[in-house]
Amino acid sequence: MTQAPTRFWHPFSDMAKIAGHEIILDRAEGVWLWDRAGHRYYDATASLWYCNVGHGRSELAEAAAKQMLRLDSYSSFGSYATEPVRELAERVCALAPINEAVAFFTTGGSDAVDTAAKLVRRYWNAVGQPERQLILVREGAYHGMNTYGTSLAGIPANAAGYGDLVPGVVRVARDSAADLARSLDEHDGRVAAFFAEPVIGAGGVYPPAESYWTEVQELCRAHDVLLVADEVITGFGRVGSWFGSQRYGIEPDLIVGAKGITSGYFPVGMVLCGRRIQEPFWRGTAGVLRHGYTYSGHATGAAVALANLDLIESENLVERVRELEGVLASTLSVLSDHTLVGEVRTVGLTAAVELEASVLSEDPGVIDRVVQAAHERGVLTRGLVGRALQISPPFVTNADELADLATVLGQSLDAVAEQRLSTPVAHR
Ligand SMILES: Cc1ncc(COP(=O)(O)O)c(C=O)c1O
Questions:
Q1: Three-class secondary structure of residue 191 per DSSP
Q2: Of 60, 322, 424, 428, which alpha carbon lies 20 to 30 A from 214's?
Q3: 139 within some domain
Q4: What is the C-alpha separation between 295 and 299, in angstroms, rounded?
């Protein structure tokens, strides 16, 4: 079927291939999506790790409609506020592992990363240590795509081709507290903060090594370096606790969040700040924080977030993730034996099915073909860093659906393995 031309430039996409071949989705309910032709698909990734309460939740649509009809939104610059925004700040601060936190709202994760990065530098400036400018990040990390996030990116391809980015970013090895220690010693007194995801997500789903976070925390304290947990994926239940920081015993100075705060029904992000960061701005002499977005503290976004948190609580969805963690791990574990698979990593209700390194190096397009084969069999997933399949379904999924998911992924891998046997490398 030929398709009408598109003027929609898709993010993170090769438009030379996609224009004329868009997959147009039409409706959704729970863990299921339907395209325009009526084909049904399992949402194996909760879209981009956000649709935690599942699709089609009338409670969220009703909360948005009710708030829009009462007061859509109004600027929060200066002294204006609305009730849902105040309530949301109260609620997320109470859930987070930071004492007496306050919340700065944004429109998504990248804005929140930008805010946190500016804030830590501004903080040190305000307390008389302006030489603390460096931000340490991990190799393989993903921190969004604003210029700060791009600069912090530990995925080299995501930072390539943009010329000079924000200076003062230092990368350390992904899972090595020793490398962090070395870097902190090297730059002692000049480091503003260490930014890290409790579990690396878009970089390939890497749960931390056993004692990693305890050691990181001690190092940051010893060097008086602020610890920023980027919980855009791990926040709001994905790893079986409200925040990944709780699972790993992290007590961050700032928490960055987005996605799951509204399950994606409205674009909202946040930065939660502990007392130390607040001090110069809320009680001290730092003056105005000249930073904020038109939609920082959007009334309708906050109303949707509150309704989403109500659903997560009333349906015990964080506990459900904990229950499903073992189910997901055991159903996907059978894939580890597949000839195309190198490793399966799981934590909470997320996983990466990583293909074998030798297969990937000989046949770099293989992950896209597995994604396509899964699509043809009714499962929507995507490739992570060109190496692994992303698995992160909505929390409302169940054990039978996870078993079916593993079966379909197995069949998709089989189909690609067979095709590889029958097709010479040059024609794949
Ligand atoms: C850890 C992390 N930080 C930041 C972001 C950026 O969030 P957004 O895409 O909402 O701007 C993402 C997005 O996936 C993320 O995974």
A1: strand
A2: 322
A3: yes
A4: 9
Structure tokens at 334: 């059978």
Atom of ligand 1 nearest to the CA of 113: 4
pLDDT in tens, 370-416: 999 999 999 999 999 999 999 999 999 999 999 999 999 999 999 99
Tally of domains within the chain: 2
Find out whether 201 and 165 touch, Cβ atoms under 8 Å.
Answer: no
Residue among 12, 142, 254, 384 to mutate when testing ligand 1 (max atoms within 8 A of CB): 142
Does the beta carbon of 345 sit less than 6 angstroms from any atom of ligand 1? no
**Other residues' Cβ atoms within 10 Å of the Cβ of residue 394:** 25
Write the DSSP assignment of 382-410 as a string of letters. Answer: -EETTTEEEE---TT--HHHHHHHHHHHH
CA of 411 to the centre of ligand 1 (A): 31
State the pLDDT at residue 2. 62
Q: Which domain holds residue 416?
A: 15-53+316-427
Distance 143 CA to ligand 1 centre (A): 6
Domain stop point among 314, 348, 378 = 314
The model's pLDDT over 250-282, given as tens digits with 9 standing for 90+, comes to 999 999 999 999 999 999 999 999 999 999 999
Are the beta carbons of 22 and 1 closer than 8 angstroms? no
Q: Is 197 in the pocket of ligand 1 (CB under 6 A)?
A: yes
Low-confidence ranges of the chain (pLDDT < 70): 1-2, 426-428
* CA–CA gap between residue 138 and residue 154 (Å, rounded): 6
